[in-house]
Design a protein that fits this description.
By secondary structure, the protein is of the alpha/beta class. It contains 17 helices and 18 strands. Helix 6 runs parallel beside helix 7 and helix 13 packs parallel to helix 17.
Protein backbone atom coordinates (compact mmCIF):
# COMPACT_ATOMS: atom_id res chain seq x y z
CA UNK A 1 0.00 0.00 0.00
CA UNK A 2 1.23 3.51 -0.81
CA UNK A 3 2.92 5.09 2.21
CA UNK A 4 1.13 8.35 2.99
CA UNK A 5 2.74 8.81 6.41
CA UNK A 6 3.91 12.35 7.21
CA UNK A 7 7.59 11.52 6.84
CA UNK A 8 7.37 9.45 3.67
CA UNK A 9 9.17 11.12 0.74
CA UNK A 10 6.59 9.53 -1.58
CA UNK A 11 3.42 10.73 0.14
CA UNK A 12 2.43 12.63 -3.02
CA UNK A 13 2.48 9.69 -5.46
CA UNK A 14 -1.18 8.74 -4.95
CA UNK A 15 -2.38 11.67 -2.87
CA UNK A 16 -5.64 13.55 -3.31
CA UNK A 17 -4.88 17.27 -3.30
CA UNK A 18 -7.61 19.88 -2.77
CA UNK A 19 -7.10 23.23 -4.49
CA UNK A 20 -8.10 26.25 -2.43
CA UNK A 21 -8.58 29.55 -4.25
CA UNK A 22 -8.32 31.66 -1.06
CA UNK A 23 -10.28 34.68 -2.24
CA UNK A 24 -13.31 32.47 -2.91
CA UNK A 25 -13.08 29.84 -0.17
CA UNK A 26 -14.15 31.48 3.10
CA UNK A 27 -14.24 35.06 4.40
CA UNK A 28 -13.47 35.38 8.12
CA UNK A 29 -13.47 39.18 8.42
CA UNK A 30 -16.63 39.93 6.47
CA UNK A 31 -15.11 42.17 3.81
CA UNK A 32 -16.39 40.04 0.93
CA UNK A 33 -12.98 38.59 0.08
CA UNK A 34 -11.83 35.16 1.26
CA UNK A 35 -8.80 35.11 3.54
CA UNK A 36 -6.37 32.80 5.32
CA UNK A 37 -8.26 32.77 8.60
CA UNK A 38 -11.31 31.71 6.63
CA UNK A 39 -9.34 28.80 5.19
CA UNK A 40 -8.13 27.79 8.66
CA UNK A 41 -11.70 27.91 9.96
CA UNK A 42 -12.81 25.48 7.23
CA UNK A 43 -9.90 23.02 7.37
CA UNK A 44 -12.08 20.56 9.26
CA UNK A 45 -14.18 20.31 6.09
CA UNK A 46 -11.12 19.13 4.16
CA UNK A 47 -10.12 16.68 6.88
CA UNK A 48 -13.65 15.22 6.94
CA UNK A 49 -13.63 15.06 3.15
CA UNK A 50 -10.59 12.79 3.33
CA UNK A 51 -8.06 14.61 1.14
CA UNK A 52 -4.33 14.31 1.82
CA UNK A 53 -3.24 17.88 1.10
CA UNK A 54 -4.46 21.36 0.25
CA UNK A 55 -2.93 23.53 -2.44
CA UNK A 56 -3.25 27.26 -1.81
CA UNK A 57 -3.53 29.42 -4.90
CA UNK A 58 -1.65 32.75 -4.52
CA UNK A 59 -2.22 34.64 -1.28
CA UNK A 60 0.69 37.05 -1.79
CA UNK A 61 0.47 40.88 -1.95
CA UNK A 62 -1.22 41.68 -5.25
CA UNK A 63 -3.41 44.30 -6.87
CA UNK A 64 -5.41 41.40 -8.37
CA UNK A 65 -4.70 42.29 -11.99
CA UNK A 66 -4.75 38.52 -12.57
CA UNK A 67 -6.51 36.98 -9.60
CA UNK A 68 -3.42 37.08 -7.38
CA UNK A 69 -0.95 35.75 -9.97
CA UNK A 70 0.49 39.26 -10.23
CA UNK A 71 2.74 39.00 -7.17
CA UNK A 72 4.29 42.09 -5.55
CA UNK A 73 6.18 40.13 -2.87
CA UNK A 74 6.74 36.37 -3.11
CA UNK A 75 7.57 36.12 0.61
CA UNK A 76 4.61 37.79 2.31
CA UNK A 77 0.82 37.66 2.63
CA UNK A 78 -1.57 40.15 1.07
CA UNK A 79 -2.86 42.29 3.98
CA UNK A 80 -6.43 41.77 2.74
CA UNK A 81 -5.94 38.03 3.19
CA UNK A 82 -4.06 38.07 6.47
CA UNK A 83 -0.54 37.99 7.84
CA UNK A 84 2.41 35.62 8.00
CA UNK A 85 1.18 34.72 11.49
CA UNK A 86 -2.16 33.73 9.94
CA UNK A 87 -0.30 31.60 7.41
CA UNK A 88 1.67 29.89 10.17
CA UNK A 89 -1.55 29.22 12.07
CA UNK A 90 -3.12 27.72 8.93
CA UNK A 91 -0.12 25.47 8.32
CA UNK A 92 -0.02 24.37 11.95
CA UNK A 93 -3.72 23.49 12.02
CA UNK A 94 -3.48 21.68 8.69
CA UNK A 95 -0.63 19.55 9.96
CA UNK A 96 -2.51 18.86 13.20
CA UNK A 97 -5.38 17.53 11.07
CA UNK A 98 -3.01 15.39 9.02
CA UNK A 99 -3.11 17.61 5.91
CA UNK A 100 -0.08 18.57 3.84
CA UNK A 101 0.23 22.15 2.57
CA UNK A 102 1.24 23.06 -0.99
CA UNK A 103 1.62 26.70 -2.05
CA UNK A 104 1.48 28.28 -5.49
CA UNK A 105 4.79 29.66 -6.74
CA UNK A 106 4.71 32.22 -9.57
CA UNK A 107 8.26 32.40 -10.98
CA UNK A 108 7.71 33.58 -14.56
CA UNK A 109 6.76 37.14 -13.69
CA UNK A 110 6.13 39.61 -10.90
CA UNK A 111 3.58 42.35 -10.43
CA UNK A 112 4.48 45.71 -11.93
CA UNK A 113 4.23 46.92 -8.32
CA UNK A 114 7.08 44.63 -7.21
CA UNK A 115 9.99 46.70 -5.78
CA UNK A 116 12.31 45.25 -8.41
CA UNK A 117 10.13 46.49 -11.28
CA UNK A 118 9.60 49.89 -9.72
CA UNK A 119 13.39 50.15 -9.36
CA UNK A 120 13.80 49.11 -13.01
CA UNK A 121 11.44 51.85 -14.19
CA UNK A 122 13.32 54.47 -12.19
CA UNK A 123 16.81 53.24 -13.14
CA UNK A 124 16.44 53.56 -16.89
CA UNK A 125 17.78 51.70 -19.93
CA UNK A 126 20.90 49.56 -19.54
CA UNK A 127 20.74 49.47 -15.73
CA UNK A 128 21.29 46.32 -13.63
CA UNK A 129 17.73 46.78 -12.31
CA UNK A 130 16.31 46.44 -15.82
CA UNK A 131 18.42 43.33 -16.44
CA UNK A 132 16.19 41.46 -13.98
CA UNK A 133 13.37 41.76 -16.52
CA UNK A 134 13.19 41.62 -20.31
CA UNK A 135 13.51 45.20 -21.54
CA UNK A 136 14.30 45.97 -25.18
CA UNK A 137 14.34 48.93 -27.53
CA UNK A 138 11.50 49.02 -30.00
CA UNK A 139 11.59 48.77 -33.76
CA UNK A 140 10.75 51.49 -36.25
CA UNK A 141 12.39 54.89 -36.82
CA UNK A 142 11.58 56.09 -33.29
CA UNK A 143 11.32 52.71 -31.54
CA UNK A 144 7.55 53.03 -31.71
CA UNK A 145 6.96 49.38 -32.68
CA UNK A 146 7.20 46.38 -30.32
CA UNK A 147 10.54 44.49 -30.41
CA UNK A 148 8.85 41.32 -31.80
CA UNK A 149 5.44 40.05 -32.87
CA UNK A 150 5.04 37.93 -29.72
CA UNK A 151 1.48 37.91 -28.37
CA UNK A 152 0.20 37.92 -24.79
CA UNK A 153 -1.87 34.99 -23.52
CA UNK A 154 -4.51 37.59 -22.60
CA UNK A 155 -4.57 39.17 -26.06
CA UNK A 156 -2.60 41.84 -27.88
CA UNK A 157 1.14 42.39 -27.96
CA UNK A 158 3.30 40.80 -25.27
CA UNK A 159 5.28 44.07 -25.10
CA UNK A 160 4.42 47.25 -23.19
CA UNK A 161 6.18 50.57 -23.77
CA UNK A 162 7.39 52.71 -20.86
CA UNK A 163 7.81 56.52 -20.87
CA UNK A 164 11.54 56.45 -21.73
CA UNK A 165 10.74 54.55 -24.94
CA UNK A 166 11.85 51.03 -24.05
CA UNK A 167 9.51 48.05 -24.02
CA UNK A 168 9.18 45.22 -21.47
CA UNK A 169 7.93 41.67 -22.05
CA UNK A 170 4.74 40.40 -20.43
CA UNK A 171 3.47 37.04 -21.65
CA UNK A 172 0.35 37.60 -19.55
CA UNK A 173 -1.20 40.89 -18.39
CA UNK A 174 0.80 44.11 -18.81
CA UNK A 175 0.80 44.30 -15.00
CA UNK A 176 2.88 41.07 -15.00
CA UNK A 177 6.37 41.80 -16.38
CA UNK A 178 8.39 38.66 -17.16
CA UNK A 179 11.57 38.00 -15.20
CA UNK A 180 14.90 37.32 -16.90
CA UNK A 181 15.87 33.82 -15.76
CA UNK A 182 19.25 34.11 -17.48
CA UNK A 183 20.28 36.31 -14.55
CA UNK A 184 21.79 34.56 -11.52
CA UNK A 185 20.29 37.16 -9.18
CA UNK A 186 16.78 36.07 -10.22
CA UNK A 187 17.62 32.40 -9.68
CA UNK A 188 19.09 33.06 -6.25
CA UNK A 189 16.05 35.08 -5.20
CA UNK A 190 13.76 32.15 -5.96
CA UNK A 191 16.03 29.74 -4.10
CA UNK A 192 15.50 32.09 -1.15
CA UNK A 193 11.73 31.95 -1.71
CA UNK A 194 11.71 28.14 -1.80
CA UNK A 195 13.62 28.05 1.49
CA UNK A 196 11.45 30.77 3.06
CA UNK A 197 8.23 28.78 2.67
CA UNK A 198 9.84 25.39 3.27
CA UNK A 199 11.24 26.70 6.55
CA UNK A 200 7.69 27.72 7.53
CA UNK A 201 6.52 24.11 7.11
CA UNK A 202 5.23 24.08 3.54
CA UNK A 203 5.28 20.53 2.13
CA UNK A 204 5.40 21.36 -1.57
CA UNK A 205 4.95 23.82 -4.41
CA UNK A 206 2.74 24.12 -7.47
CA UNK A 207 4.83 25.90 -10.11
CA UNK A 208 2.82 28.32 -12.23
CA UNK A 209 3.62 28.46 -15.98
CA UNK A 210 6.58 26.15 -15.36
CA UNK A 211 7.31 25.84 -19.08
CA UNK A 212 7.88 29.58 -19.71
CA UNK A 213 10.83 30.57 -17.52
CA UNK A 214 13.66 29.96 -20.01
CA UNK A 215 13.56 32.19 -23.09
CA UNK A 216 15.74 32.63 -26.15
CA UNK A 217 16.85 36.23 -25.64
CA UNK A 218 19.77 36.17 -28.06
CA UNK A 219 19.85 39.17 -30.38
CA UNK A 220 18.17 39.81 -32.65
CA UNK A 221 15.00 38.46 -31.03
CA UNK A 222 13.12 36.40 -33.56
CA UNK A 223 9.58 36.94 -34.74
CA UNK A 224 7.20 33.99 -34.81
CA UNK A 225 5.48 35.08 -38.01
CA UNK A 226 1.90 34.42 -36.94
CA UNK A 227 -0.08 35.32 -33.79
CA UNK A 228 -1.17 31.71 -33.18
CA UNK A 229 2.48 30.64 -32.81
CA UNK A 230 2.63 32.60 -29.54
CA UNK A 231 0.29 30.09 -27.90
CA UNK A 232 1.03 26.69 -26.39
CA UNK A 233 -0.63 25.04 -29.38
CA UNK A 234 2.42 26.13 -31.41
CA UNK A 235 4.52 23.57 -29.51
CA UNK A 236 3.21 20.88 -31.85
CA UNK A 237 4.21 22.95 -34.91
CA UNK A 238 7.82 23.71 -33.99
CA UNK A 239 10.71 21.31 -33.28
CA UNK A 240 10.67 20.31 -29.57
CA UNK A 241 12.50 22.74 -27.31
CA UNK A 242 12.89 25.47 -29.95
CA UNK A 243 9.99 27.84 -29.22
CA UNK A 244 11.46 31.20 -28.14
CA UNK A 245 9.65 31.30 -24.79
CA UNK A 246 7.77 28.03 -24.17
CA UNK A 247 9.16 24.64 -23.13
CA UNK A 248 12.77 25.37 -23.96
CA UNK A 249 15.30 22.68 -23.04
CA UNK A 250 17.19 25.14 -20.81
CA UNK A 251 14.25 25.36 -18.39
CA UNK A 252 15.19 21.98 -16.94
CA UNK A 253 18.47 23.36 -15.60
CA UNK A 254 16.37 25.62 -13.36
CA UNK A 255 14.36 22.74 -11.92
CA UNK A 256 17.40 20.53 -11.36
CA UNK A 257 18.77 23.41 -9.31
CA UNK A 258 15.49 23.65 -7.39
CA UNK A 259 15.52 19.93 -6.68
CA UNK A 260 18.79 20.33 -4.78
CA UNK A 261 17.11 22.97 -2.60
CA UNK A 262 13.97 20.88 -2.02
CA UNK A 263 15.94 17.72 -1.22
CA UNK A 264 17.76 19.49 1.59
CA UNK A 265 14.59 19.09 3.71
CA UNK A 266 13.34 15.98 5.47
CA UNK A 267 11.12 14.80 4.00
CA UNK A 268 12.06 16.43 0.70
CA UNK A 269 9.60 19.09 -0.46
CA UNK A 270 7.59 18.06 -3.48
CA UNK A 271 6.62 20.12 -6.53
CA UNK A 272 4.19 19.84 -9.43
CA UNK A 273 4.60 21.70 -12.71
CA UNK A 274 1.84 23.54 -14.51
CA UNK A 275 3.25 22.87 -17.97
CA UNK A 276 0.91 23.13 -20.93
CA UNK A 277 3.07 20.99 -23.20
CA UNK A 278 2.57 17.70 -25.09
CA UNK A 279 2.73 14.51 -23.01
CA UNK A 280 6.24 13.29 -23.84
CA UNK A 281 7.68 16.74 -23.16
CA UNK A 282 5.56 17.16 -20.03
CA UNK A 283 7.14 14.09 -18.47
CA UNK A 284 10.55 15.77 -18.52
CA UNK A 285 9.40 18.16 -15.79
CA UNK A 286 8.56 15.18 -13.55
CA UNK A 287 11.93 13.46 -13.69
CA UNK A 288 13.37 12.42 -10.29
CA UNK A 289 15.93 15.23 -10.34
CA UNK A 290 13.31 17.87 -11.18
CA UNK A 291 9.72 18.50 -9.96
CA UNK A 292 8.20 15.06 -9.09
CA UNK A 293 4.97 15.63 -11.04
CA UNK A 294 3.40 17.63 -13.88
CA UNK A 295 -0.28 18.39 -14.38
CA UNK A 296 -1.97 16.22 -16.97
CA UNK A 297 -4.07 18.70 -18.91
CA UNK A 298 -4.64 16.23 -21.74
CA UNK A 299 -6.89 14.26 -19.39
CA UNK A 300 -8.83 17.41 -18.42
CA UNK A 301 -9.34 18.25 -22.10
CA UNK A 302 -10.48 14.75 -23.14
CA UNK A 303 -14.15 14.49 -24.22
CA UNK A 304 -16.59 12.20 -22.40
CA UNK A 305 -15.95 9.30 -24.75
CA UNK A 306 -14.71 5.87 -23.71
CA UNK A 307 -12.07 5.25 -26.38
CA UNK A 308 -10.63 8.76 -26.00
CA UNK A 309 -10.36 8.47 -22.22
CA UNK A 310 -8.85 5.01 -22.41
CA UNK A 311 -6.23 6.24 -24.88
CA UNK A 312 -5.28 9.27 -22.74
CA UNK A 313 -5.15 7.22 -19.52
CA UNK A 314 -2.94 4.56 -21.14
CA UNK A 315 -0.59 7.14 -22.64
CA UNK A 316 -0.45 9.21 -19.43
CA UNK A 317 0.43 6.22 -17.26
CA UNK A 318 3.13 5.11 -19.70
CA UNK A 319 4.58 8.62 -19.94
CA UNK A 320 4.76 9.05 -16.16
CA UNK A 321 6.16 5.55 -15.67
CA UNK A 322 8.95 6.20 -18.18
CA UNK A 323 10.49 8.85 -15.89
CA UNK A 324 9.64 7.18 -12.57
CA UNK A 325 6.84 9.63 -11.74
CA UNK A 326 3.21 8.99 -10.90
CA UNK A 327 0.43 10.27 -13.12
CA UNK A 328 -1.76 13.24 -12.21
CA UNK A 329 -5.46 13.64 -12.89
CA UNK A 330 -7.62 16.75 -12.73
CA UNK A 331 -11.12 17.61 -13.93
CA UNK A 332 -11.48 21.24 -12.80
CA UNK A 333 -9.35 24.14 -11.61
CA UNK A 334 -9.42 27.93 -11.33
CA UNK A 335 -8.74 28.40 -15.07
CA UNK A 336 -11.36 26.20 -16.76
CA UNK A 337 -15.13 25.75 -16.94
CA UNK A 338 -16.24 23.51 -14.07
CA UNK A 339 -16.64 19.92 -15.22
CA UNK A 340 -20.23 19.65 -13.98
CA UNK A 341 -21.04 21.99 -16.88
CA UNK A 342 -18.21 21.33 -19.34
CA UNK A 343 -18.76 17.58 -19.67
CA UNK A 344 -22.32 17.98 -20.97
CA UNK A 345 -21.54 20.65 -23.56
CA UNK A 346 -21.89 19.14 -27.05
CA UNK A 347 -18.57 18.07 -28.63
CA UNK A 348 -16.90 20.98 -30.39
CA UNK A 349 -18.69 23.66 -28.35
CA UNK A 350 -16.83 26.96 -28.27
CA UNK A 351 -16.69 27.42 -24.49
CA UNK A 352 -16.07 31.17 -24.72
CA UNK A 353 -19.08 31.61 -27.01
CA UNK A 354 -21.11 29.57 -24.53
CA UNK A 355 -19.99 31.84 -21.68
CA UNK A 356 -20.75 34.95 -23.74
CA UNK A 357 -24.29 33.60 -24.18
CA UNK A 358 -24.54 33.40 -20.37
CA UNK A 359 -24.69 29.62 -20.67
CA UNK A 360 -27.86 29.66 -22.76
CA UNK A 361 -26.51 28.60 -26.16
CA UNK A 362 -26.48 25.71 -25.87
CA UNK A 363 -28.55 25.27 -22.72
CA UNK A 364 -27.07 22.89 -20.15
CA UNK A 365 -29.09 20.30 -18.28
CA UNK A 366 -27.83 20.87 -14.74
CA UNK A 367 -28.99 17.49 -13.42
CA UNK A 368 -27.39 15.64 -16.34
CA UNK A 369 -24.20 17.62 -15.81
CA UNK A 370 -24.06 16.70 -12.14
CA UNK A 371 -24.66 13.02 -12.92
CA UNK A 372 -21.85 12.98 -15.45
CA UNK A 373 -19.53 14.91 -13.12
CA UNK A 374 -20.09 12.38 -10.33
CA UNK A 375 -19.30 9.51 -12.70
CA UNK A 376 -16.18 11.28 -13.96
CA UNK A 377 -14.97 11.91 -10.42
CA UNK A 378 -15.38 8.29 -9.33
CA UNK A 379 -13.50 7.21 -12.46
CA UNK A 380 -10.68 9.68 -11.77
CA UNK A 381 -10.29 8.66 -8.14
CA UNK A 382 -9.86 5.02 -9.16
CA UNK A 383 -6.89 5.77 -11.45
CA UNK A 384 -3.31 5.18 -10.24
CA UNK A 385 -1.57 8.42 -9.31
CA UNK A 386 -2.55 11.72 -7.72
CA UNK A 387 -5.94 13.37 -8.11
CA UNK A 388 -6.33 17.14 -7.84
CA UNK A 389 -9.77 18.32 -6.70
CA UNK A 390 -10.88 21.94 -7.13
CA UNK A 391 -12.80 23.63 -4.34
CA UNK A 392 -16.55 23.26 -4.70
CA UNK A 393 -16.53 20.25 -6.97
CA UNK A 394 -17.26 18.10 -3.93
CA UNK A 395 -20.52 20.08 -3.75
CA UNK A 396 -21.27 19.47 -7.44
CA UNK A 397 -21.06 23.18 -8.28
CA UNK A 398 -21.72 24.06 -11.93
CA UNK A 399 -20.10 26.93 -13.79
CA UNK A 400 -21.72 30.31 -13.08
CA UNK A 401 -21.90 31.19 -16.75
CA UNK A 402 -24.34 34.10 -16.47
CA UNK A 403 -22.24 36.55 -14.45
CA UNK A 404 -23.12 40.10 -15.61
CA UNK A 405 -20.26 41.67 -17.53
CA UNK A 406 -20.15 44.62 -15.14
CA UNK A 407 -18.96 42.37 -12.29
CA UNK A 408 -16.24 40.51 -14.21
CA UNK A 409 -12.78 40.64 -12.62
CA UNK A 410 -10.68 38.50 -14.97
CA UNK A 411 -8.30 40.82 -16.89
CA UNK A 412 -8.81 38.84 -20.08
CA UNK A 413 -12.21 40.55 -20.48
CA UNK A 414 -10.59 43.97 -20.87
CA UNK A 415 -7.39 42.75 -22.55
CA UNK A 416 -9.38 41.15 -25.39
CA UNK A 417 -11.70 44.10 -25.94
CA UNK A 418 -14.66 42.35 -24.33
CA UNK A 419 -14.46 39.30 -26.59
CA UNK A 420 -13.32 36.66 -24.05
CA UNK A 421 -15.46 36.43 -20.90
CA UNK A 422 -12.76 34.76 -18.81
CA UNK A 423 -12.55 32.53 -15.78
CA UNK A 424 -14.70 34.24 -13.14
CA UNK A 425 -17.50 31.68 -13.50
CA UNK A 426 -15.42 28.97 -11.82
CA UNK A 427 -14.14 31.35 -9.12
CA UNK A 428 -17.47 32.36 -7.57
CA UNK A 429 -17.22 32.07 -3.74
CA UNK A 430 -18.35 28.80 -2.18
CA UNK A 431 -21.74 28.27 -0.50
CA UNK A 432 -21.35 26.87 2.99
CA UNK A 433 -24.90 27.51 4.23
CA UNK A 434 -28.28 27.45 2.52
CA UNK A 435 -29.08 31.04 3.52
CA UNK A 436 -27.42 34.34 4.30
CA UNK A 437 -26.03 37.23 2.26
CA UNK A 438 -23.26 35.05 0.82
CA UNK A 439 -24.48 31.54 1.72
CA UNK A 440 -22.07 31.28 4.65
CA UNK A 441 -19.02 32.44 2.70
CA UNK A 442 -18.80 35.45 5.03
CA UNK A 443 -20.88 37.79 7.15
CA UNK A 444 -21.63 40.09 4.22
CA UNK A 445 -21.76 39.78 0.44
CA UNK A 446 -19.12 38.18 -1.76
CA UNK A 447 -16.69 39.72 -4.26
CA UNK A 448 -18.45 37.86 -7.08
CA UNK A 449 -22.23 37.36 -6.94
CA UNK A 450 -23.53 33.88 -6.17
CA UNK A 451 -26.66 32.57 -7.89
CA UNK A 452 -29.74 31.56 -5.83
CA UNK A 453 -29.18 27.95 -6.93
CA UNK A 454 -26.15 27.82 -4.64
CA UNK A 455 -28.52 27.33 -1.70
CA UNK A 456 -29.19 23.71 -2.68
CA UNK A 457 -25.50 23.04 -3.29
CA UNK A 458 -24.40 24.39 0.10
CA UNK A 459 -22.21 22.16 2.24
CA UNK A 460 -24.72 22.50 5.08
CA UNK A 461 -27.53 21.21 2.84
CA UNK A 462 -25.53 18.15 1.78
CA UNK A 463 -23.81 17.23 5.04
CA UNK A 464 -25.14 13.87 6.23
CA UNK A 465 -27.59 13.58 3.32
CA UNK A 466 -27.36 10.11 1.84
CA UNK A 467 -26.49 10.19 -1.85
CA UNK A 468 -25.44 13.85 -1.89
CA UNK A 469 -22.37 14.74 -3.89
CA UNK A 470 -20.52 15.75 -0.72
CA UNK A 471 -21.21 12.36 0.87
CA UNK A 472 -20.22 10.61 -2.37
CA UNK A 473 -16.82 12.31 -2.25
CA UNK A 474 -16.36 11.49 1.43
CA UNK A 475 -17.21 7.83 0.88
CA UNK A 476 -15.05 7.57 -2.23
CA UNK A 477 -12.00 9.07 -0.54
CA UNK A 478 -12.41 6.86 2.53
CA UNK A 479 -12.68 3.74 0.35
CA UNK A 480 -9.83 4.85 -1.90
CA UNK A 481 -7.46 5.08 1.04
CA UNK A 482 -8.31 1.52 2.05
CA UNK A 483 -8.17 0.08 -1.47
CA UNK A 484 -4.95 1.66 -2.78
CA UNK A 485 -2.26 -0.90 -3.45
CA UNK A 486 0.39 -0.19 -6.05
CA UNK A 487 0.19 1.92 -9.19
CA UNK A 488 -0.85 -0.70 -11.74
CA UNK A 489 -3.98 -0.59 -13.89
CA UNK A 490 -5.20 -3.49 -16.06
CA UNK A 491 -7.89 -2.89 -18.66
CA UNK A 492 -10.58 -5.59 -18.51
CA UNK A 493 -11.29 -7.42 -21.78
CA UNK A 494 -14.60 -7.81 -23.62
CA UNK A 495 -16.18 -4.59 -22.42
CA UNK A 496 -19.16 -3.30 -24.46
CA UNK A 497 -18.70 -0.19 -26.62
CA UNK A 498 -18.89 2.97 -24.55
CA UNK A 499 -17.79 1.23 -21.34
CA UNK A 500 -14.48 1.61 -19.50
CA UNK A 501 -13.49 -1.15 -17.07
CA UNK A 502 -10.20 -1.72 -15.32
CA UNK A 503 -8.79 -3.52 -12.30
CA UNK A 504 -6.26 -2.30 -9.77
CA UNK A 505 -3.56 -4.46 -8.18
CA UNK A 506 -5.71 -6.04 -5.47
CA UNK A 507 -8.71 -6.83 -7.71
CA UNK A 508 -10.57 -3.61 -7.01
CA UNK A 509 -12.42 -2.83 -10.24
CA UNK A 510 -13.85 0.37 -11.68
CA UNK A 511 -16.53 0.31 -14.40
CA UNK A 512 -17.89 3.44 -16.13
CA UNK A 513 -20.73 3.55 -18.63
CA UNK A 514 -20.15 6.48 -20.99
CA UNK A 515 -22.72 5.24 -23.53
CA UNK A 516 -26.31 6.41 -23.91
CA UNK A 517 -27.86 3.08 -22.93
CA UNK A 518 -27.84 0.75 -19.94
CA UNK A 519 -25.08 -1.85 -20.02
CA UNK A 520 -24.60 -5.17 -18.20
CA UNK A 521 -22.93 -4.77 -14.85
CA UNK A 522 -20.03 -7.20 -14.32
CA UNK A 523 -20.37 -9.58 -11.37
CA UNK A 524 -19.06 -8.50 -7.99
CA UNK A 525 -20.10 -6.62 -4.89
CA UNK A 526 -20.82 -2.94 -5.54
CA UNK A 527 -18.69 -0.90 -3.14
CA UNK A 528 -19.84 2.48 -4.41
CA UNK A 529 -21.93 3.92 -7.25
CA UNK A 530 -22.02 7.45 -8.62
CA UNK A 531 -25.73 7.09 -9.45
CA UNK A 532 -28.16 9.08 -7.31
CA UNK A 533 -29.92 7.04 -4.58
CA UNK A 534 -33.33 7.34 -6.27
CA UNK A 535 -32.04 5.78 -9.51
CA UNK A 536 -34.57 3.23 -10.77
CA UNK A 537 -32.04 1.06 -12.56
CA UNK A 538 -32.87 -2.63 -12.70
CA UNK A 539 -30.59 -5.07 -10.90
CA UNK A 540 -27.52 -6.05 -12.91
CA UNK A 541 -27.57 -3.09 -15.30
CA UNK A 542 -25.30 -0.05 -15.26
CA UNK A 543 -27.09 3.18 -16.24
CA UNK A 544 -25.57 5.75 -18.62
CA UNK A 545 -23.16 8.26 -17.09
CA UNK A 546 -22.52 6.06 -14.07
CA UNK A 547 -19.37 4.68 -12.44
CA UNK A 548 -19.27 1.83 -9.95
CA UNK A 549 -16.46 0.39 -7.86
CA UNK A 550 -16.64 -3.38 -7.49
CA UNK A 551 -14.95 -5.65 -4.99
Amino acid sequence: MTDLSPHSPDWWRQAVVYQVYPRSFADADGDGLGDLRGVTHRLAHLAALGVDALWLSPFYPSELADGGYDVADHRDVDPRLGTLADFDALTGEAHRLGLKVIVDLVPNHTSHLHPWFQEALAAGPGSPARARYVFRDGRGPAGELPPTDWQSVFGGSAWQRVPDGQWYLHLFAREQPDLNWDLEEVREDFRTTLRFWSDRGVDGFRVDVAHALAKDLTEPLRDLGAPELSGEQALTQLPPGTHPFYDRDEVHEIYRDWRRVLDAYSPPRTAVAEAWVPGARRALYARPDELDQAFNFEYLQTPWEADAIRRVVTDSLATARAVGASATWVLSNHDVVRHASRLVLPPGTDENAWLLSDGRSPAVDEAAGLRRARAATLLMLALPGSSYVYQGEELGLPEVADLPVEVLQDPVWEQTGHTVKGRDGCRVPLPWKAAGPSYGFGAAGAWLPQPPSFARYAAEAQDGTAGSTLELYRTALRLRRKLLDGEVLTWLPDTPPGVLAFARTDGWRCVTNLSATQQPLPPGDVLLSSAPPDDDTREGLLPPDTTVWLA
